[in-house]
């Protein structure tokens, strides 16, 4: 097992390069007027540079290459290529915009590189619905589906200061520690580098004044891609690893690791398609972090609440996997998430006066109940 201090150094390298690059990115953004302009749907009230994802990419890339230490990392060239695809489509979207279809095509290309060229697929089911594994073609289809969900989830949750980067720090660090414990140093390297680069961005994004910036689609798509790769490897290596740190109910544990991004994107898509009758990719202010802001929490407070909640799901998953099967633990995750979500919706309905003319906010509650409360 590689010394943990080594991976902490890798984390520090990625942190340092991201922290060093961000002031220069902000300087260039200001010189070229590359800003996120405030509008009705957005929460920022001033113009802010949006290319923070470039700093994250630099930190991760240099962290894993400088810190490689001769590890036999066959998948690395494909992972970097996959990262590059989502990185560049993110830059295009941040600078000139792109359509959801074009973005989806590039995300699929990124997943193709990982699943086909690197031969990294979601093939093992660990007993979910009675299945232990699936064939090659079903594994490819499942990998594409999971990849699209995870990458888009990170893209969609990037709505308040520190949220996407805070969750990336937490989730990648959890993966990294487990990869380190089972002696898979190359993936621990990727995870710790991601955590370090995300931490540097988090500081500038949350606490920055002169050099405050957003990660934009450049960063959120990039982080989603890396977390997707780590999640697939976590699932697959768990099927063959039988050592001291082996886990049960792995797909359900993965859902726990990614609880907030997964549940929030499913919740918002349901609200947009079923209740609002519009495209699932239509932007609005119906994410859970928007709900927390409407109650009166600040960006930082809402971020800390969500990150702490996701950490609770991670901890609960690691404990309950010893006692519950995949299906049972999955049901527990979604039941708890639904209770918390609807509890928040009812609290807002009866305690917070939402603007009835705000086209970007819709409670995920029956229309008649909302109308009754408005007329009461």
Could you write a compact summary of the structure shown?
By secondary structure, this protein is mainly alpha-helical. It has helices at residues 4-31, 52-66, 76-95, 100-117, 136-157, 163-181, 185-207, 216-240, 250-257, 259-275, 288-295, 299-320, 326-351, 367-375, and strands at residues 35-36, 48-49. The model has no long low-confidence stretch (mean pLDDT 87).
Describe what you observe in this structure:
This protein folds into 2 domains: 1-242, no CATH class; 248-376, no CATH class. Helix 2 (52-66) packs antiparallel against helix 7 and helix 5 (136-157) packs antiparallel against helix 8. It is mainly α. It has helices spanning 4-31, 52-66, 76-95, 100-117, 136-157, 163-181, 185-207, 216-240, 250-257, 259-275, 288-295, 299-320, 326-351, 367-375, and strands at 35-36, 48-49. The protein has 14 helices and 2 strands, in the order H-E-E-H-H-H-H-H-H-H-H-H-H-H-H-H. It is globular.
